[in-house]
Amino acid sequence: MDTVINILNSMAREAIAPQTAAVAIAVIGLNVHFGFTGLLNMGQAGYMLVGAYGFAISVREGAPLPVAILIGLAASVVLSLVLGLPTLKLRGDYLAIVTISAAEIIRFIGRQPLLENVTGAAQGIPGGDYRVPFQDLSFLGAGQTSFGPWNYFNTGVNGWWVRVVAWGVVFLGVLIVWLLARSPWGRLLKGIREDEDAIRSLGKNVFAIKMQALIIGGMFGALAGMIYVLPSSVQPDSMGRQLTFFCWTAILLGGAATIFGPVLGAVLFYATRIFIKGFANATVPDSIMNTQQTEQFSWIVVGVALMLLVIFRPQGILGKKRELQFNV
Amino acid sequence: MKVRPWRRLRASSRAVALLLLTLLVAPLTLWLASSPASAADTLCLPDDKSACLAGTIRSEEDVVPDAELTVTGPKGFEESVTTSETGKWNVKVTELGAYTVTLDEESLGDDLEALDTVGKTNVAKFKTTRAVVIEVRTTNYSGETSWIEYFTKSAISGLRLGLLLALASVGLSLIYGTTGLSNFAHAEQVTMGGLLGYAVINLGGLNLWLGGLIVVIICGFTGWLQDRVMWQPLRRRGLGLIQLMIVTIGLSLALQYVFQYFVGARSVRVVKENPETFNIGFVELTYQSVAAMLISIVVLGGVGYALLYTRIGRATRAVADNPALAASSGIDVDKVIRLVWTASAALAGLSGILYALVTGNIKWDSGMQILLLLFAAVTLGGLGTAFGALVGSIIIGLVIELAPVAHVPGDFKYAAAMLILILVLMFRPQGLLGRAERVG
Question: Which domain range does residue B274 map to?
Fold first, then answer.
């Protein structure tokens, strides 16, 4: 019984963790790309890394917090332009190949020992270097607050403050996407997803609209990167290809082209993984599967779940199947 | 691309589900007795009140074990340390400040000498590890390598890398050409080749040639099986190409962790011994890398011949060109695609085992690291053209290995490959050998 409660508690903790919120924001951005516009961005983790670097380095060099956030966002806009200009006129899978490559290149460059003074190389930038201005904004004061399975410091490194802000941003993101999706511009996006030529024949500049979507989704990615690193540190390897794939699993789980799908998907994704891990740990004896292997087993399940989702329920939990039969 | 009837829907779903179930249960049932190797080196883990100094003493030939070092630092800190089997050393310090590491040259033995016996570093914060570099050379080492020597060496490794990439990318390109699918799990087929090589040759003790052949056959079989139970049913189901591509991503993720589950995150070797070397002029080569290059050339030649001059090769090119037309002229498209999957997986497996032999080791994400190069090569040559993939791979291989000669530092050489990719897409999106057509 204790084990069950322990697993449930750690699932609840994982569900509201700031990093889950960060991934939810990244998935909201991916939803603008993939769900609404049909752009295959396979490098969302690259956007996150760029945002995190832009933010962390600017704060460390003494920029005020709003400026640092703007620099992080600007970095993602530059990335969108570099990736979008050569590929958005081509067939969709070119964008996929270029984005996945670009995300890896950014990670490689971040790891470069030559840049140790800027990016901290493979060691990364420790959280203490950029976290302080954000923590100083906290109005929650000192002390600790306990609520159900959640017991954190009000302001600490990984406490309530970062959680409140992270989920606040998630809420804002959902609101923005909701407003965008029901605007005329949002209808254009869906139109491009369904039939690019039809929109082109209406006299719209499809390339420009796709670029705008890429930039907006990328900015969500950059914002997600900043929140992702706040409670920890900027580790280039923590924002590699795996993270992009988690974002994809989350969006397909929750339902692409829906408003709440990304958030639901991200929360479910992380909570379920903890459940699989905890469950395997508790039920399978160590001689068959040791603790490290349960971790790997949980990732195998994630990969297989992604395949099954796409094959049997491409619309995810909240989506409409009709909306996801497009091809590029 | 193709509209397929929805017949056999139920049977195909069942086959897919069965495969996926197997994939899930495989780790449980096939659990091998290989436990991850214990770490040979002691680790230094810095915490909030300490930092680590660490380094590896190595000459241009090999790591140097049992070298003695003295670390001195603030407040009279002094500690002696001896390098491990792998030439590694580390010291934990609890004071911030400047530290000096001195190498005892006596402990190196007669055939080694230090360029500079003193290394200095400054520990500015706790919870970090500072690397201290002390360079050691063998006494007969001539530090001056001429530019032409460096260039030749790099060109040869570039050609070698290019040939190995070509083995994998030809398959990737053929799959793309015949089915329109960008297979993200292709890199895992490469890893699978290397890791199976480790299992069969290193653990199983089989002869290298026989073992290699078995590995290639197993890999080819996995390709056949994949098409039989997954890709063909999914094609029949009419699943879109984007959806299929995401399925390959899921497969890639699952396979990576299946590898990690069995082998762990460590690097493994296909053969236990260090490869023997010989010299041609000033270029030192291992027999294995020469053999790898020869095998690649022969196999690639064979693939090229088959594509150009055999009946099935012509059928493959016909399907790549226009599947509907090929089908209506009596070609069994599914059979061709099945063959393409089998051959591609076998080629990727061969590439993997050769890659593991040439670079000396393979680990769970080795394939993932070259996936980007494969895509760059395939795009550069022209998506879907087998010969384009060959040309693209050789160019990418040469660029990567020659970039350091042109003073491009370290990992930026991968950025050079990326730059090529972006330039190609901007100015010649159909690739070098692709046919110009409107692609968007």
Answer: 9-34+147-427
| Domain count along chain B | 2
Residue B438 lies in a domain: no
pLDDT at B346: 95
A108: nearest CB among B249, B376, B411 = B411
For A266-284, write each residue's pLDDT tens digit: 999 888 888 888 888 788 7
B316 found inside a domain: yes
Residue B20: per-residue pLDDT = 57
- pTM as predicted: 0.76
| C-beta atoms surrounding A10 within 10 Å | 16
User: Which pLDDT band holds residue A294 (cuts at 50, 70, 90)?
Assistant: confident
* CB neighbourhood size of B118 (10 A): 11
- Domain residue ranges of chain A, discontinuous segments joined by +: 2-131+156-324
Backbone angles phi, psi at A256, to 5 degrees: -75, 155
Which residue of chain A is at minimal alpha-carbon distance from B33?
Answer: A288
Tokens of residue B1, six digits: 């691309």
Distance from CA of A192 to the nearest CA of B (A): 12
Q: What is the CATH number of domain A2-131+156-324?
A: 1.10.3470
Last residue of one domain, picked from the residues B138, B156, B175: B138
Residues B324 and B411 in one domain: yes
B338 and B307 inside one domain: yes
Do residues A291 and B36 touch, judged by C-beta distance below 8 A? no
Q: Which residues contact A132 (CB under 8 A, 6 or more apart)?
A: none
Last residue of a domain, one of B94, B111, B138: B138
- Co-location of B13 and B96 in the same domain: no
Q: CB-based contact (8 Å) between A242 and chain B?
A: yes
Does residue B98 lie in a domain region?
yes
Across the interface, whether the CB atoms of A126 and B243 are under 8 A apart is answered no
Question: Tokens representing A324?
Answer: 């996801």
Starting at the edge strand found earlier in the chain, the sheet holding B77-82 runs B77-82, B68-73, B97-103, B118-123
Q: How far is B11 from chain A (nearest CA, A)?
A: 14
Best mutation site among B372, B378, B400 for testing chain A: the one with the most A CBs within 10 Å? B372
Q: For residue A91, list chain B residues with Cβ-Cβ distance below 8 A.
A: 439-440
| d(C-alpha B140, C-alpha B137), whole Å | 8
Low-confidence ranges of chain B (pLDDT < 70): 1-42, 60, 139-145, 410-411, 435-440
Q: Which residue matches tokens 């991968």? A: B414
**pLDDT for A232-246, tens place per residue?**
888 888 888 888 988
A48's tokens: 């996150």
Do B132 and B156 fall into the same domain?
no
**d(Cα B246, Cα A250) in Å, to the nearest integer?**
13
* Interface check A304 vs B, CB under 8 A: yes
d(CA B166, CA A247): 31
